[in-house]
Write a structure and sequence with these properties.
Number of domains: 1
Shape: globular
Strand content: 15-25%
Distance between the termini: 33 Å
Order of helices and strands: HHEHEEHEHEHHHEEEHEH
Radius of gyration: 22 Å
Number of helices: 10
Length: about 450
């Protein structure tokens, strides 16, 4: 990443002269210390990048070159954007109860995100400044391309809760609970869930996707450092090997069970489907969320060793697709329309298919993960499921209820982490910031 700055940026007020700044930042999910950043301006162009033929070509070019994905637009990047290869996802607890401090943090995060997604260092950079103060940027992404980095922010149900420190009047001086969207519900406990509280929930989330893992980790690390004293990392997850695609022309990725995943996923260029199934409209309410979405994040553990000892026929029956081509039962090609009645009633594809749920669809952006072993020689591996939708109550909840009851895949998986977030609309221009309408 570049440390180049315009004269306007150099003239911006700096807080690096305040020697009370902390030291190092986040390393794979643990905060050490930090400070605030200079609010800077960036000269890159605006645009959504997903809703026109012109921008389709731009996305394809970015995927080939590691170039920057446009940050500004009516929707946040990282949702309909062509799915990158790597993920660093982090959930945060807000530790301040000052509404103005939280709003300022979101402003600071926005300014930093503008720079990092454009391939620039945060603030005044990683070196060359005041020797007695920590640098503004942690520096591990210096010299790297933007790698199509996207940063997507969300607000959890607990951000709008009552009675945490306020005697029941509401967080941040009151009033936040009235802004909670009706669709931002706490997910019910599904049959088979074995949820770890340490791997779920959160007041805020940041999804960092990039084609270079170091670029994604750098972004989360710097945002956590900027938020020191206002937020603390609650949990985080690294991911690799995207398991869904928003670009139908590309090869469908495979999950760790070796099967193609997300064949019927919503295309990032299908504006009609996005409007119907993903983006919150003005009539959905509340007004501050129009143009946004809802995200469900689930950490799904895969019983790799048991699966690897299962016959090929049973594996294909479990999914309802053949393992080589990815074609549905009785079909020759992956994208042939499946005949659901030809599959076993317990097959995953049959139970999850939109035709089994009145046409309901979600935009999936899942990633595989491996986090070492469990102490018994078994891989701690699985799928970090990410799904964007217009209303959790109409999409994820009924689909997951159906899967939890009857899916043959349940013998080989278990949901161990869970979170839901309201995703605000995009940052329109240089004067806008994440969640501005909520705090206005």
């Amino acid at each position: 990443m570049s440390e180049d700055e315009t004269s306007e940026e150099k003239a911006a007020p700096s807080r690096r002269s305040l020697l009370g700044w902390g030291g190092a930042g986040l390393a794979l999910g643990a905060v050490a210390a930090g400070g605030t950043i200079t609010v800077l301006r960036d000269g890159d162009g605006d645009g959504d990048g997903d809703d026109s033929d012109r921008d389709r070509n731009a996305v394809a070019s970015a995927a080939d070159s590691g170039a920057a994905v446009p940050f500004h637009g009516p929707h946040q990047a990282g949702i309909a954007t062509a799915v990158q290869d790597r993920l660093h996802f982090a959930a945060f607890d807000v530790t301040t109860e000052d509404r103005a401090e939280l709003a300022q943090l979101l402003k600071d995060w926005t300014r930093a995100a503008e720079r990092m997604t454009a391939g620039h260092a945060v603030g005044e950079g990683a070196y060359g400044g005041l020797a007695e103060a920590p640098p503004d940027d942690t520096g591990e992404a210096l010299g790297l391309q933007p790698s199509r980095l996207t940063l997507t922010v969300g607000f959890g149900p607990s951000l709008f809760a009552r009675g945490r420190f306020d005697g029941g009047t509401g967080r941040f001086g009151g009033g936040m609970e009235k802004q909670r969207p009706a669709a931002l519900v706490d997910l019910p406990k599904f049959p088979g869930d074995n949820l770890d509280p340490a791997r779920g929930g959160g007041d805020l989330c940041v999804q960092a996707c990039a084609d270079d893992p170091q670029v994604a980790v750098h972004a989360i690390r710097n945002l956590a450092r900027i938020g020191f004293g206002k937020v603390a990392v609650r949990w985080s997850q690294l991911g690799f090997g995207k398991t869904s695609s928003t670009t139908p022309g590309a090869q469908t990725p495979r999950n760790l069970f070796g099967f193609k995943d997300g064949t019927s996923n919503i295309a990032g260029t299908d504006s009609a489907a996005l409007d119907t199934h993903v983006w919150v409209s003005e009539k959905d309410g509340p007004a501050w969320l129009a143009g946004g979405s809802y995200l469900v994040a689930r950490r799904i553990s895969m019983r790799i060793e048991s699966w690897d000892r299962t016959s090929l026929q049973e594996q294909e029956d479990v999914f309802g697709r053949d393992k080589g081509e990815g074609a549905a039962v009785g079909k020759a090609h992956e994208h042939d329309k499946p005949s659901l009645k030809a599959m076993l009633p317990t097959s995953h594809v049959r139970l999850a298919h939109p035709d089994s749920h009145h046409g309901v669809r979600m935009l999936r952006r899942g990633y595989s993960f491996t986090d070492g072993t469990d102490g018994l020689g078994r891989l701690d591996a699985g799928l970090f499921f990410l799904a964007y939708q217009r209303d959790v109550r109409d999409a994820f909840i009924p689909v997951q209820r159906s899967l939890a009851r009857s899916d043959a895949l349940n013998e080989y998986i278990q949901h161990v982490g869970s979170a839901v977030f309201a995703i605000p609309p995009g940052v329109r221009d240089k004067d806008d910031w994440w969640g501005r309408a909520l705090f206005s």
